[in-house]
Amino acid sequence: MRKASLSAIFAVALLASTLPSFAEKIKGDSPLKDVQPFGTKDKEHKHQAYDFTFDAKGKNYTCRTDSGKSTNAADFVVGTSINYEIDNNKATLKTPQNKKVNCKIVRAELLPAATP
């Protein structure tokens, strides 16, 4: 009995340690749907943060830039194509002009199913 419970605990621990390796990055191109400023600048937040909205793999994502890093929102024109790479809750967005921004996914919404 003791061997069986130890084996079960070991199996669960092994499975739990390998779960993060199953997650794969989501990559692709999509039109940028929206860019909105988020929050305000102050002593702790030296730069303006922005929320970027785009579609990827059947979901609508909103990702937020870090207020500790400078972002030029004019580099990201709404309606133009962006290249995205999503890894868990982090994303990297890149324009065709190779302007890049790192952001954190703050919202994911399933896109409505197409009606015939």
Describe how the helices and strands are arranged.
Layout (H helix, E strand, L loop, with lengths): L1 H21 L3 E13 L10 E8 L2 E7 L15 E7 L2 E5 L5 E11 L6
Antiparallel strand pairs: 1-2, 1-4, 2-3, 3-6, 4-5, 5-6
Please tell me about this protein's structure:
There is one protein chain. With 116 residues, this protein is an alpha+beta fold. It has a single domain, classed as OB fold (Dihydrolipoamide Acetyltransferase, E2P) (Beta Barrel). The chain is built from one helix and six strands, in the order αββββββ. A six-stranded antiparallel β-barrel has the order 1-2-3-6-5-4.
How would you summarize what this structure contains?
With 116 residues, this protein is α+β, with helices and mostly antiparallel strands. It is built from one helix and six strands; from the N terminus they run H-E-E-E-E-E-E.
Quick tags:
18% helix, 6-stranded antiparallel barrel, 116 residues, single chain, alpha+beta, OB fold (Dihydrolipoamide Acetyltransferase, E2P)
